[in-house]
Write a structure and sequence with these properties.
Oligomer: single chain
Number of strands: 2
Radius of gyration: 20 Å
Number of domains: 1
Shape: globular
Number of helices: 12
Structural class: mainly alpha
């Protein structure tokens, strides 16, 4: 009995913000340590860090509760128009976030070669999709929505739960250019998860989002002013299009989508 009480006292169950941060630091520490060991052993990384991240999250989920993965991966039927509306909304959101990043880069320029040194991207289209979209989309949604946000819904108000889980999701990206857009994206991933209670829907949209960010190249125009030598930003018509698509998809979901709010704590975390 005493042993069980101690186990519960030091549980890593991310029921609140502090525990969730500790859990994320624990997981990131394992992935970083494994990647550093691979570096010391001169072993080509490839997908190994992604696989280690995935396995660590799966093991953590099982340690939290033996039925955790069953609860996370429950299948819920979704009408096709829900997928279509969310895809339209996120296409517009990607355009908007791209323009936000354009302005942010004026304030905080990206060092030359920063992202090419920060991330390992394998050669080949399909391998790249697996590395930048499928692995992150699957593992991050399981962790930040399936484990953390789902528990936050039983501790905080829905709005606060989404904002706090999005903040954690943003900060772990560990560079200012991704933090801003990750926070915005996390809000809408969390909102979709709260609304439809489907991790599979979130995984699909996250993969779709990452593919758009990585492969869709939006047109830019150069704008000069007295404060800066030049600013690269979208043409006005593209920003208007992005706002229109985002609002069209969003209001379609609000007006016609099935809303599944979390009502009882037992439904979120047993």
């Amino acid at each position: 009995m005493k042993k069980n009480n101690i186990s519960k006292k030091f549980s890593i169950n991310p029921q609140n913000l502090v525990r969730a941060i500790i859990l994320c630091l624990f997981i990131d520490g394992i992935v970083f340590s494994a990647s550093f060991l691979l570096f010391l052993l001169n072993i080509t990384f490839g997908f190994l860090p992604d696989i280690i991240f995935l396995l660590t999250v799966m093991i953590v989920a099982v340690k939290l509760d033996k039925n955790e993965l069953r609860r996370i991966f429950v299948w819920r039927e979704m009408p096709v128009f829900i997928f279509a509306a969310i895809m339209v909304m996120f296409f517009g959101l990607v355009i908007i976030k791209s323009e936000i990043l354009n302005f942010f880069e004026v304030l905080v320029p990206i060092p030359k070669g920063f992202f090419s040194d920060w991330f390992h991207v394998p050669e080949g289209f399909f391998l790249t999709i697996i590395s930048i979209a499928i692995f992150p989309g699957f593992t991050e949604e399981v962790l930040y929505r399936g484990i953390i946000a789902r528990r936050f819904f039983s501790t905080y108000s829905p709005r606060k739960a989404i904002l706090l889980s999005s903040l954690i999701f943003a900060v772990v990206h560990m560079n200012p250019w991704q933090i801003v857009n990750a926070f915005i994206g996390g809000i809408f991933f969390g909102w979709i998860y709260l609304r439809y209670r489907s991790i599979w829907l979130c995984i699909f949209i996250h993969i779709y989002h990452n593919i758009l960010v990585s492969y869709v190249k939006f047109p830019h125009v150069r704008v000069e002013n007295s404060a800066y030598l030049e600013i690269w930003r979208h043409p006005l018509w593209l920003d208007i299009l992005g706002i229109f698509l985002f609002l069209f998809g969003l209001f379609t979901l609000i007006l016609t989508g099935k809303k599944n709010k979390v009502v009882a704590k037992a439904e979120v975390v047993e």
